[in-house]
Amino acid sequence: MFGYIIVNKAEMKFKEFDVYHSYYCGLCQVLKKRSGWRGQITLSYDMTFVLMLLTALYEPETVHGTCKCVAHPF
Q1: Does some domain include residue 69?
Q2: Residues of the domain holding 21
Q3: Span 21-36, average pLDDT
Q4: Is the model's pLDDT at 44 over the cut of 60?
Q5: Of 50, 40, 47, nearest to 72 (Cα)?
């Protein structure tokens, strides 16, 4: 099923939320680059959870950067 995972901001620390938000934004940018806006509208918390799980399992090289988007300009 799709859409079962939600973020519980009240229980997260600021640093944990920043890490989660960076995964979410990074995935959004990759989806935009690879498949345009149609890829971006498929983004969900479920996909971000899977990304974080796979990152923890395979430990790829981490890339840090900044970007701005229309949905979250700050």
Answers
A1: no
A2: 12-54
A3: 92
A4: yes
A5: 40
